[in-house]
């Protein structure tokens, strides 16, 4: 009877050969780039591209109250993100730039452009619950505000 839990010998040796090839490729990669360079490149890619892509994919946040303000909807728009240069804050509250030779671990302030719009429900039928986005209109008398740069945290 054939044992279904073990590979035939020729397939087992083939898999070992593939594993050896993989380790050869991985070894060559780290010889050329080095582990630290690979980590720095990965971080740079995240900061320079991936964070903005995530913001762009989810650039609108819609909040609707239940209760007293149930007829209002707030829309927050997210835009460009900015990563400032790393700084250190002194005990007196003053900030100054920080450079890698001063600290191995430091954080840089992260900002994002944001704006908020308000919509008010104007249902066509007073007995109809407000569920359709078409029932909401932009709050009259308020133009779309310009985006402001808001501190999000540190990276």
Describe the structure.
Its EC number is 2.7.7.6. Residues 34-154 form the RNA polymerase beta subunit protrusion domain. Belongs to the RNA polymerase beta chain family. The radius of gyration is 27 Å and the shape is flat. By secondary structure, the protein is α+β, with helices and mostly antiparallel strands. β1 and β2 (72-83) form a beta hairpin. The chain has helices spanning 9-33, 35-57, and strands at 60-64, 72-83, 87-89, 95-97, 109-121, 136-138, 148-154. The chain has one domain. It has two helices and seven strands. The termini are far apart. The strands form two sheets. Strands 1, 2, 5, 6 and 7 form a five-stranded antiparallel β-sheet that branches. A two-stranded antiparallel ribbon has the order 3-4.
